[in-house]
Amino acid sequence: DAGITQSPRHKVTETGTPVTLRCHQTENHRYMYWYRQDPGHGLRLIHYSYGVKDTDKGEVSDGYSVSRSKTEDFLLTLESATSSQTSVYFCAISEEPPGLADYNEQFFGPGTRLTVL
Amino acid sequence: QKEVEQDPGPLSVPEGAIVSLNCTYSNSAFQYFMWYRQYSRKGPELLMYTYSSGNKEDGRFTAQVDKSSKYISLFIRDSQPSDLATYLCAMSGNQFYFGTGTSLTVIP
Question: Quick check: B9 pLDDT over 90?
Answer without folding.
Answer: no
